[in-house]
Amino acid sequence: MNQPVIVVEGLRKVYGDVVAVAGLDFEVEAGTILGLLGPNGAGKTTTIEILTTLRRADAGRATIAGFDVGRQPELVRRVIGLAGQAAAVDDRLTARENLDLFARLYKLPAPERRARVDELIERFDLGGFADRLVATYSGGQRRRLDVVAALIARPPAIFLDEPTTGLDPRSRLDLWREIRAMADEGAAVVLTTQYLEEADRLADDIVIIDRGEVVARGAAEELKKDLGRDVLVVHVSDPADLPRAAELAGDGADVATDAGHRMLTVQLGDGPPEALAVLRRLSDAGIPVEDFQLRRPTLDDVFLTHTEVRR
Amino acid sequence: MSAVDLPFEPPSGVRGALLDVWTMARRDLIRTMRQPEYLSFSVVMGVFFLVLFELVFGGVIAAGAGVDYDQYLVPGVLVITAITGALQTGNTLAVDLQYGADKRFRSLPMSRMAVLAGRTVADTIRNAVAVGLVAAVGYAFGFRFTSAGSAAAALALTVGIGYAFSWINAAIAAKVRSAELVGMLSMFWLFPLMFGSNLFTPTVAMPAWVKAFADNQPISVVATAVRALANGSDPGLSVVGSGAWIVGLLVVFVPLSVRLYRRA
Which of A35, A66, B31, B97 has a CB 3.0–4.6 Å from the CB of A199, allowing a cystine? Predict the structure, then answer.
């Protein structure tokens, strides 16, 4: 089937006595997005820098489109596009001139270069400001140009280091759409982010790292499933009803009560049908229910479970 | 996955590197045209020195040293114009290195050296224009070259020493990576070289050890060569000495800059 474009095996990087990346493994197929999720200092940027030949790994191996990042950096640079954390576009050039500069550095032949610059401006809707100096752009426009610039040579592998950090919600949505489009055009995309929502919305696969180590991985849905089952939260009117309610709700192990908040939480084995059954039993027993909610585990729960337990 | 077929075979080796140098120089030249302050800074500096020394010290020096002060001063001012123009290399390069631009350049299939070389080439083209403009102002003050050939040789040496100093500044920028620090550090070497020289006054009255330095340091040697070429007098060793300083500085500072740049 699809062969992975990016293959990372046992990647490791140590600065002094700080282990920045401690044996990372993952693969990214063409047309998919891998979300590298973790708090500040988790090793996300170091990983990106190793894969884009800016740093050398101390151990392990990574190949991009078949080229080894440690041993064939010149070839790797021809098959990658990078948008780093700081926007790397030139203030005193226009968007068109910036894109043209990068196209020249990738050595695109002249006719293709012009066509590609026009195509990207059209495709990513930069036309409104393409011929203005970047110095006049909003943060969102600048960041979009920066990300689009990574695509100039149609690289099979694209690396985006926290592409939406600091953007307003509207610009973030625009950029998400564009990143999705990159993958739809067939690129393998690695995206680092601190935002769970971003990983959830964009990434086909997620690797959660903390202090250089993988703490969880899988598709967003799988990660949530792993974490556990849906949770029913019920608020009763009278805390005195709680013991009885807990008894009615289930077999003890999956039920917790919190008298202070007049709250009952039930881990459900069977999702909504079981939630209905529990609520019906409470109702039949005449226990007044003030409020209830059915909560699916969020990526936040996954993230917090895996990163905070260790702290 | 086996290696992909790359879509095209780009020019590699020296040809690819030269292409990168030109691409980077072109970018810097476009920026320079958008910010004419860069050009005007060294021109204004040159004209400032010209007017200041001509009006303030001209009479005294001409009387004391028995020289035609226009013919003496303008070559020195041309050289200082090239040297101050070369300061821009350190400044703008440090900005590139300090912010995100450099990370992207390092991830691109381009020559590492082109980031530095493009900068120095663009600054040198700009410097040639600045030196030409200051020479034209000097002409208005009465300064003359004896022939077009000697003018060309003199301007080539002037721009050449500016190019060598661009690489000194590139090395400093590659080391400290902060525009502010580069600016401060440049004062430490610029003032001793500028005033411990024969640029503005003959060195005869200096203490022996200062004179030994002032006569032989690169800026003075080039200024001496430019004066001799302008007057059509015997340049002695100054033209050869200028060439040697330019080549010598490049031999040391080009590899040093590249090494410091790669290290980060």
Answer: A35
